[in-house]
Amino acid sequence: MAFDQSPQGPDIVVSGLDKVFGHGETAVHAITNANLSLERGEFLSLLGPSGCGKTTLLRIIAGLEAPTSGNVQIRDRQVWASGRRSNGATRPVSMMFQEARLFPWYTVAENVALPLRIAGIGRAERMARARRICETVGLGAFVDHRPGQLSGGMRQRASLARALVTEPQVLLLDEPFGALDAMTRDTLNLELMEVCARAKVTTILVTHSITEAAFLSDRVVVLAPRPARIVETIEMPFPRPRDLDLQRTSGFQNMVGRLRKVLTEGAA
């Protein structure tokens, strides 16, 4: 997979971001004064209680939701200007959702290749690229299956492959493995971490899982309840590569305890 390795400044900069839904007495202030900066290849998690604005923040960065005020830059290009999205700024971005959102009438390979089809890439090339990325995420034997023939974990593998097939520079993940059993979630987290590290993809993960955030991330941003505000940003001191044995160490458990304390106090 040929990813752009050219040196850059911060991949993502979020400055003074606010989001208000509605007007007047019924207005809902979802995000207040959010500021973030991510370097190339960094893995950052947004951790907070349900409804605190994590997904809204992710959607604004992705160009799917306009902010009320503030700025988002991806590789020095403004995502939003006067309420309008810059398609050029969001071109390096791919997003994966909690639901796999696969078309049941397409094969796995056809589902994975769909973004390339939309981009106008010819069938032979897009199918070859789709099959290669399916191999990477452990779906090589299932490329000709339909989604209905797959387990939930395999469908999420297909969704991850589709998010990666465009060779993105920025990957945004909205609780992609939240509905899976613990063992499948652990397996996919290991594969996600390996792929992101190898490709130097700048990654933001929205999660409710303190353990998942601590295990995957370089930094964890803890958000307070609505309106979302950053309570604390905590660096994860664990060397890479990481494996599941890390989660049984006292250092990891202490970090999980620290994150839980900050999360609880922020919600008070």
Give a verbal description of the structure:
By secondary structure, the protein is of the alpha/beta class. It has a domain of 154 residues: P-loop containing nucleotide triphosphate hydrolases (Rossmann fold), CATH 3.40.50.300. The protein has 8 helices and 12 strands. The strands form 3 sheets. A 6-stranded mixed β-sheet has the order 8-9-10-3-11-12, with helices on both faces. A 4-stranded antiparallel β-sheet has the order 2-1-4-5. It has a two-stranded antiparallel sheet with strand order 6-7. β1 and β2 form a beta hairpin. α7 crosses α8. The relative contact order is 0.17. The N terminus is likely disordered.
Please describe the biggest sheet, giving its number of strands, its sense, and whether it closes into a barrel: 6 strands, mixed
Which series of helices and strands comes N to C? EEEHEEEEHEHHHEHEHEEH
Percent helix range: 25-40%
Taking pLDDT < 50 over at least 5 consecutive residues as the criterion, the unreliable ranges are 1-7
Q: Evaluate the radius of gyration.
A: 19 Å
Number of DSSP helices? Answer: 8
Pick out its properties:
alpha/beta; globular; 12 strands; four-stranded antiparallel β-sheet; 268 residues; 8 helices; single chain; 24% strand
